[in-house]
């Protein structure tokens, strides 16, 4: 299978998962059903349905590549620490935005190789907007049949920050000031990475925890578009398959 064939399969899988999410989103009998996980984070029927679609497809098309999904059981570190390549999935990133019905949620599928996110697909089903990043090859935004190459701004000053709608933190202020941020916008889910990737924002700083599946696809899109994602405010590259899948703070720069 060529790399282009692999990409086309993943784009199709993301679309299929997005269609399943929208089927539930548009049916009030299902969209309002919300459970809570042990960490008190919300879980909808759409999270579960998207997970099932993605896992079934990846296991069909790529039976030799293991995977981790937010809604599946995470293999023990003793098993996965030997993985050279695996899929990392967030079937519905922005569950809180799904519940709020603001449309700012995504399907995230990333391919991790040697602990780095090398391919990422972020699909926003409400607007049928697809972001694809292949590190070293470039990034694009796909709306319907229209594909547009995207790149970061690389602005040196008077920057615009993109911030979380559900997880804003006062600790962000000093970092944004240090990077000469003069304006900010708020959006949910991994769309923040995508806004940096397409130049609608210049910086995304997240203070506090996320999980690896929250960031992997968005990081690939941003870095394929010419950006960088660092651990907190250091110059250390953000990597994956840690023993503890909990992320610390990170900085995405365009």
Number of domains: 2
Biggest sheet statistics: 7 strands, mixed
CATH topology of the largest domain: Fructose-1,6-Bisphosphatase, Chain A, domain 1
The number of helical elements comes to 8
Write down the overall geometry.
Answer: globular
At the fourth level of CATH, the homologous superfamily of the largest domain is: Fructose-1,6-Bisphosphatase, subunit A, domain 1
* Physical arrangement of strands within the biggest beta sheet: 3-4-5-6-7-8-9
Rounded mean pLDDT score: 92
Q: Report the C-alpha radius of gyration, rounded.
A: 17 Å
Query: How many β-strands, per DSSP?
Result: 16
Query: What series of H and E elements makes up the topology?
Result: HHEEHEHEHEEEEEEHEHEEHEEE
Q: What's the helical proportion of residues?
A: 25-40%
Classification by helices and strands:
alpha+beta
Describe how the helices and strands are arranged.
Elements: H1 3-25, H2 28-31, E1 34-36, E2 42-44, H3 45-61, E3 67-69, H4 77-80, E4 85-93, H5 95-100, E5 106-113, E6 116-124, E7 129-134, E8 138-143, E9 146-150, E10 159-164, H6 172-178, E11 181-187, H7 191-197, E12 203-206, E13 210-211, H8 212-224, E14 228-231, E15 246-247, E16 250-253
Parallel strand pairs: 3-4, 10-11
Antiparallel strand pairs: 1-2, 4-5, 5-6, 6-7, 7-8, 8-9, 12-16, 13-15, 14-16
Structure description:
- There is one protein chain.
- The protein is of the alpha+beta class and 254 residues long.
- The chain folds into two domains: 3-150, Fructose-1,6-Bisphosphatase, subunit A, domain 1 (Fructose-1,6-Bisphosphatase, Chain A, domain 1); 159-253, D-Maltodextrin-Binding Protein, domain 2 (3-Layer(aba) Sandwich).
- It is built from eight helices and 16 strands.
- The strands form five sheets. Strands 3-4-5-6-7-8-9 form a seven-stranded mixed β-sheet, sandwiched between helices. The protein has a three-stranded antiparallel β-sheet with strand order 12-16-14, sandwiched between helices.
- The protein is globular.
């Amino acid at each position: 299978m060529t790399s282009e064939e692999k990409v086309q399969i993943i784009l199709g899988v993301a679309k299929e998962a997005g269609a399943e999410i929208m089927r539930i989103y548009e049916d009030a009998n299902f969209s309002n059903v919300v459970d809570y996980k042990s960490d008190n984070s919300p879980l909808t029927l759409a999270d579960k349905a998207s997970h099932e679609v993605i896992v079934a497809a990846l296991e069909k098309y790529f039976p030799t590549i293991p995977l981790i999904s937010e809604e599946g059981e995470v293999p023990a570190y003793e098993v996965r620490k030997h993985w050279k390549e695996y899929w990392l999935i967030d079937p519905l990133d922005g569950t809180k935005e799904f519940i709020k019905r603001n449309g700012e949620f995504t399907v995230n599928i990333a391919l991790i190789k040697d602990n780095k996110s090398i391919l990422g697909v972020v699909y926003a089903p409400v607007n049928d907007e697809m972001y694809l990043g292949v590190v070293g090859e470039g990034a694009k935004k796909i709306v319907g049949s229209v594909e547009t190459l995207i790149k970061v701004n690389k602005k040196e000053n008077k920057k615009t920050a993109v911030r979380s709608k559900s997880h804003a933190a006062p600790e962000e202020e000093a970092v944004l000031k240090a990077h000469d941020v003069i304006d900010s916008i708020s959006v949910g889910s991994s769309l923040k990475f995508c806004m940096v990737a397409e130049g609608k924002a210049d910086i995304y700083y997240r203070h506090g925890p996320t999980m690896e599946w929250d960031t992997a696809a968005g990081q690939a899109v941003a870095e394929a578009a010419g950006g960088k994602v660092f651990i907190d405010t250091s110059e250390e590259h953000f990597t994956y398959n840690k023993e503890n899948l909990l992320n610390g703070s990170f900085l995405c720069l365009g």
